[in-house]
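User: Show me sequence and structure for the first protein, then do the same for the second.

Assistant: Starting with the first protein.
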Amino acid sequence: MTQLLVKWWNYLTGHGKGISIENRTFNAISLITTVHLATVVFSNIALRLYTMAWWATGMVLLLFSLFYLSRFKNKFVLSSTAFAILSYPAISGIYILNGGVSGPGSYGFLISFLVIIVITKPKTHIYWFILHCLFMCGLFALEVFKPEWIVNPYYSKEDHIIDLILSYIPVLLFIYIAASFLRKGYNYEKHLAAYRLEAINTKRKELEYTNKEKDRLFSIIGHDLRSPLFSIQGYLEVLNSTELSEKDRIDIQNQLYELTTNTSHLLNNLLLWSSKTGSELKLNAINLQEATKEMISLVEPQAYKKNVEINCAVPTEKIFVEADNDMLQLVLRNLLSNAVKFTPEKGNVRIWFEPKEKTVSIYVQDTGIGIPENKKADIFTSKAKSTHGTAHESGTGLGLVLCQEFVSAMSGSISFESIENTGSTFVVTLNKS
C-alpha cells in the first residue's frame, strides 16, 4: 500500500520525470493545498461559514487548474506566475471574510510567501518580501481604520478555535514539505558537485598520466630515431672516405640494411599509431588466415637470416574477426618479429588459432630467451626498455605498447606467459565477426 502511494505521489508531483525541483515543489504544494481547501469547504459548511465555503470552492478550482497546467501541460512558468499574482486577492478575501487578524488569513500569506520564494529566482525574493510586507500592513491598516469591512463569521468561540486549528495544521505541513524539497534539492546539488569534482580530478590525473606517457614516448622515439640515423650517417661516411675490403664493405651494407629496416619498422608503427589515435575506429570483418599469412611473409626474411623456422598451424576453414585491418597487421607483425628477434638460431616460432563460440585466440609462441621476472610487469607500458635480440638486433620497446593499445581499441585482450631461457607465448583474443 505504501509503495503504491509513493508511486502515485511521484507521478503527480513529477518526481523522476526530468522536472526541476522548483516545479516539483510547486506541484506538491498546489496538490496538497487543493486537497486541504476541499476539506475546508466541507468544514466551513459544517461550521455554517457559507461565504467562506464558496470562496474556498473558487480557490480549489483555481489551484487545481494551476496544478494541472504545471504538471501535465508543462506550463510551470505560467502557473507559478499566476499563483504568485492571484494569491494576493485570494488570501486578502480570506482575511476580510474570515475574521481579519484574529482569523487564519495571515497564515495564508505566510504559506504563499514560502511557496513564492521556492518557485521564483533568488534575485526577485527581495521584491516579493517587500510586496508581502506592504500588502499585510495595508490589510492591518484597513482593519484599524475600517473595522466594519472585516467580517466576523463565527457563531461561537469554539467555531473560531476549530477553524484556527484546521488552518494551523496545514501550515506546518506545507512548511515541512517545502523544507523537505529544498533539503533534497540541496543534497542533490551537493552530491552532483562532489561527483563533478571527482570526475574532474580523475580526468586531471588521467591527463597528467597521459602527458607523462607522451613525454616518455617521445623521449624513446627521439632516442631510437636519432641513434640509427647517426649510425647510418657514420657508415656512409666510412663508405665514402675509406678504402675497404670487400668483406668490410659487405658487413657495413648489412648493418645499413638492418638499421634502415628497423627505422622503417619504427616509423610504420608511429605513423599507424598517430593516424588511429583520436580517430573514430570502425571495425570490419577481417579474414584472419589471410592477415596472418601476409605478416608471416614479411617476417620470413628476418627468420631466414637467423635460421629460425616459423610454423603456421591455422585451420583450413575461414575465420573472420572484428578488427581494424591496419591495427591487426601491426599486432601480428610485432608479435612475430619479436618472437624471431628473441629466438636463437635454429629455434622455432609457432602461430596457431583457437576458435571459441564468440572469440578467437591467436597464439604466438617462441623457443627464445624469455622475459625476466623483473621486466614482466612493464612489458606493455612505455617503461619497457629496448632489448637487443639474440643476434644483437636493435629495437624500440614500443611494439608491445602499441599492440596492447590497439588490441584494447578492438575490444580484445592480450596476455603472455614466459619462462626465462625457455620461451614466451603471447595470446591475442578478438571477437568473432
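Switching to the second protein now.
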Amino acid sequence: MIPIIHIDDYKYDLPEGRIAKYPLPERDSSKLLRYEGGKVEEYVFKDIPGLLPKDSMMVFNETKVVPARMHFQRESGAHIEIFCLEPIDPPEYNTSFAAVGKCSWKCVIGNAKKWKGDVLSLSNPENDVSVSQMDLKASLIERDGQTGTVEFRWNGDYPFSRVLEICGTIPIPPYLNRDTEAIDLERYQTLYAKIRGSVAAPTAGLHFTTRVLDGIKDRGIEIDNVCLHVGAGTFLPVKSRDVSEHPMHREPFAVSLDLLRKLRDKKTSLIAVGTTSVRTLESLYYVGVSCIEDGCPSDVRQWAPYDRDYPYSTEEAIDAIIKYLEDNGMTELRAGTRIIIVPGFKFRLVDVLVTNFHQPESTLILLISAFVGGDWKTIYDYALQHDFRFLSYGDSSLLFRSDIAIGS
C-alpha cells in the first residue's frame, strides 16, 4: 500500500548562506556529523575510518559525471541550452560515448520555446579552433515539453565522449546559482569515478581522499563498487503535496556478480556511500523478486516496495539474481530503478549511510527520515545550529540505521 506522506512535513529553513557554493580546499577537511540511536556527535571527515564498524563492507558508486551541458545558437542569435540526459541511439552509454559522427540523446532543452526545429550550431564565443573544426550541430527529432530527443552530428573521427569534453561543461547543481568554473572540473567528481554517465555527482563521495580510503582499508573494511548513473531528476523538487503523486525518473545501474555473491553471504555491516548507492543496493531485492517470480530481472518500479508483503528472504532474492546471471553466462547485472525510499520502507541490505545534507522537501530527505526512523529533524537541527555547510559541496554525515545497534 502506497504510504500517505505530505511533503510539507519535511520542510526546514535553509538560509542561502548555508549552501556551500564552493568546495573546501581539502576534500576530507569538511565536518562530519555522526548519528546513532538518537545521539549526535561532531567530527572532521578524515576521522571517518575510526568511526566505522570493523570488518564491514563499504560500497561506493563509481559513476563519473560527464560534461553534459552544451550551449547552442540559432541563426537569429537565440541561445539554446541542451543538457544530455540519456542515450537513445545507440541506446547504451558505452556505445553512445564511442559513437563517431552522430548520435542522439534524450535532453533537457533550455529556452525550448525559441527552438523552432532548425539545426543549431554550437555557440563558440572564444572561437576555439578545435570546436570550429568539429562543427557540432544539433537537430530536434521530437519534443515533449522541456525535454526532447536531439540528434548530434559533428566532423572528424572524434568519439562522442571527446565531443562532450571539448564542447560541454560539467552541469553543477542549479542551486549553486553560478556558472561552472575550473575548480568544478576536478572537485565535482569523486576520486574513484570510472564509468561515464551521470549528470550529477554522487556527492557523498566528494569527501574521500586517498588518505581516508587507505585508513578504511587499514581498519579491515572491504571496499566494493556499484554504478548508478545519476539523472537530472535528482535536482527535481517534490512539487505535489502528496508524495504519491511525485514521479521518480529511471536511473540505470550495474552490480557485478562478484559483489552479489558477497552480499548474499554477508555477515557484517554494509555501509553505503551516498543515497545513490543505497537506492542501488536496496533495489536488488526487488530485482531478485522478479527473477523468482518471472524468471528474469526487470526494472524496479517506484512503489514496488510498498505494493505487498514479500515472502522471500534477502538471501533468496539475491541468490535468484546470481542464478540468472550464472545460467546466462553473465558477470554483471544491468537494470534500472525508479525506487523511492520513504518512511515505512523496509531496509534489507544497508546498515550505515554516508551522505551530505539535502534540500528541504526533497525525496532525499524522505530517504534519510526512513533510514533514521523519522528522526531527521534531530540531525538537521544540529547541523543548522552548528554551522554545517549544506548540499553538494557541503559537509557530511555518518548515519546508523535506527532499527539496528552496531558496535565498533
